[in-house]
Amino acid sequence: MTQLSPTQDRSNDELDRLAQLAEDVIRRARAAGASQAEVAASIDTGLNVNVRLGEVETVEHTRDRGFGLTVYFGQRKGSASTADLHPDSIQATLDQACAIARFTEEDPAAGLADAARMATQFPDLDLWHPWRIETDQAIALGKQIEDAGRAHAGITNSDGASVQMGESLAVYANSHGFLGRERGTRHSLSLSLIAGDDEGMQRDYWYDSVRSADDFMSAQALGDKAAQRTLARMGARKLSTRQCPVLFTPEVARGLIGHLTSAVSGGALYRRASFLVDHAGRQIMPSWMNIMERPFIMRGQGSGSFDAEGVATRDSALIENGVLARYVLGSYSARKLGLASTGNAGGIHNLVVEPGQDDFAALLKRMGSGLVVTEVMGQGVSTVTGDYSRGAAGFWVENGEIAYPVEEITIAANLRDMYANIVAVGSDVDHRSHLLTGSILLEQMTIAGE
């Protein structure tokens, strides 16, 4: 995969321009009477090509710009944004933010993050890998991926292949004197296929997501994986209602971890809208389980040296020996809770579930008989109560071996019980997300079927 040479790469020039603009607007905001101000500016560019049945369906080139300003007059806050970086638009945005702040009620929790918490070190985390791919090359790659999948006997149709290239430049600055610059790339390939016979049709897909195009799986491998997953679903059956062990594959298991981060995030906690309110320091998972935030993983999907408020990120336990070690807080939610920011304004930076020794096959043996979940559907998860009920598809397992595919079932439990009854975490970690986990085996869930 071809990368840009340094002489072709003008990203640092663009960042310089955004940084100068941000610092200038902060000076103007202070001159207009703001006691504090912060600016976030970004430029995102990309290419997205979709191919179906050997023909081009869509080609989309994007270049999006964003500029957001927040000003504080004491503890009155005003925010405004624009996608136009013309001086007149920037001035109008500044005027609007100041006007809003002057007529907003005071909020004791409002204000910039603590100046002492600002990041001062900015290591190169190897996140910038521009992909010099022309439109015709992207189309050819999409066709190659789709051809690889469609070549498998039993594949009867395609929902298409996509090739995406993305670059993001961002600057955050505030009146503490902090200026942080970030640049990152994210590229992806995907394929969705259909298999059919006299008894019905099944659809499945696969994708790859990387910082550097050099790290992609091959077009052939991606096509093969999508086809194998689709064909494996043929002959799917329903299950009778029962209770049994459930094994979530990594791409589904990370959803369980996402529900955890939502439940311990500041917004849900200070609103008392989480089943984990007041649970810091309490055991919510098995004593062998550890989950760490690792912001400095090289080429990590969520790596970064500062959060959306400029607060320095750091390695930190979220779950330590099964105990909820802390919450996930930005400065506003921290103040509402009488706590300190955890450097998570804007979200988590690489959450790593400590893997076990068992690979997927070993987890099947350990489960014996039960359900492997490869797909979940619907929105039946309540962070308030912890109730979990979602449509699912996957495979029934007997004697440690996959017996047959299943569909049209519902899996249900409460997240509190699900976390407490985790039996094992696999070594098959999925690295395509900022939530890094292997398969997760649960002791028991209710399966609602026929």
From TrEMBL:
Membrane-spanning segments: none
Chain ranges of the Metalloprotease TldD/E central domain: 129-233
Molecular-function GO terms, alphabetical: metallopeptidase activity
Pfam families in alphabetical order: PmbA_TldD_1st, PmbA_TldD_2nd, PmbA_TldD_3rd
GO CC annotations on file: cytosol
Swiss-Prot/TrEMBL GO biological process terms: proteolysis
Residue intervals of the Metalloprotease TldD/E N-terminal domain: 37-101
Annotated Metalloprotease TldD/E C-terminal domain residues: 241-449
Family: Belongs to the peptidase U62 family.
Protein name in UniProt: Peptidase PmbA
Organism this protein belongs to: Dyella japonica A8
UniProt gene name: pmbA
